[in-house]
Amino acid sequence: MEVVFKQVSDAYIEQAAVLPALTSIDAAFASGQWHCLIGAAGSGKSTLLQLAAGLRLPRQGQIQAGTVTLEPTSKKALRREAIKQSGLVYQFAEQQFFEESVERELLFGLLNQGMNEITAKERASQMAMTVGLKEELLQRSPFSLSGGEQRKVALASILAMRPSLLLLDEPTAGLDPVAAEQILEVLRQYQATTQCTVLHSSHDMGDVYHCADHVVWLEAGKVQASGTANEIFVHHMGGMDNALLPPPLSIARQIGVKLTADMPKVTMHTLLQSVRERQLEVGERH
């Protein structure tokens, strides 16, 4: 599902003051691709995700999400259509648990969509297996699980509804590296299987570089740049300190690899190849 923002602006009201969140956003998110949103806290990433999901309406402009067009005056029925076709995984989504068991948490959205309980249970069980939740956990309280297991429950409850548009707001925030990688692997496999469109907000540049087909860089509610991961990190952010770059690019720069915006993504495998080739060149000279 393609998502297009046309001159979209939005703001929040706080103590009678209007606080701009997004200003004149023009952005296109191609169907079936993994799009990452980057930028400092308060740059508008979460607001953009909520607008794409239909949870908010823009103050100005238009959002085309599949067959649904959202504008400032759009009716509730249209917003419901947008919400039905998308799934938003909030940062620390497990804080929104309210059911007594993992199974009931997974069933909630499916039953709310009108699915019968037998089919819903089959779907929930299948999705629990997909994200790596053991069957014996289904009758446990979600509040008794580890942080990584809770995040898997939150993901499974969204993925079970098979959204055409998957919106991820810092999906690995607060997790240890092992749990974070497990979550990302589940998401990558799901996206590869379903070819859904992903909009993923993240502060982890390593995750962004690894996952993204397309990156949008937001600052102060405006689009600073958009393009492939290499175009953003090599061309637009090439002057950044090494520590702020994705690890593969940081290491490549340190060992003297020439970086260009149109080169294939740098991986640890290609870096090792580069080091070996240099060692062979040095050996041949001697």
TrEMBL record:
Annotated compartments: Cell membrane
MF terms (GO), sorted A to Z: ATP binding; ATP hydrolysis activity; ATPase-coupled transmembrane transporter activity
Transmembrane portions of the chain: none
Pfam assignment, any one: ABC_tran
InterPro entries: AAA+_ATPase, ABC_transporter-like_ATP-bd, ABC_transporter-like_CS, ABC_transpr_CbiO/EcfA_su, ECF_ABC_transporter_ATP-bd, P-loop_NTPase
UniProt KW keywords: ATP-binding, Cell membrane, Membrane, Nucleotide-binding, Translocase, Transport
Protein topology in the membrane: Peripheral membrane protein
Span of domain ABC transporter: 3-245
Matching SMART domains: AAA
Coiled-coil parts of chain: none
Chief location: membrane
PANTHER family (alphabetical): ENERGY-COUPLING FACTOR TRANSPORTER ATP-BINDING PROTEIN ECFA2 (PTHR43553:SF27), HEAVY METAL TRANSPORTER (PTHR43553)
Family statement drawn from the similarity comment of this UniProt entry: Belongs to the ABC transporter superfamily.
The protein, known as: Energy-coupling factor transport system ATP-binding protein
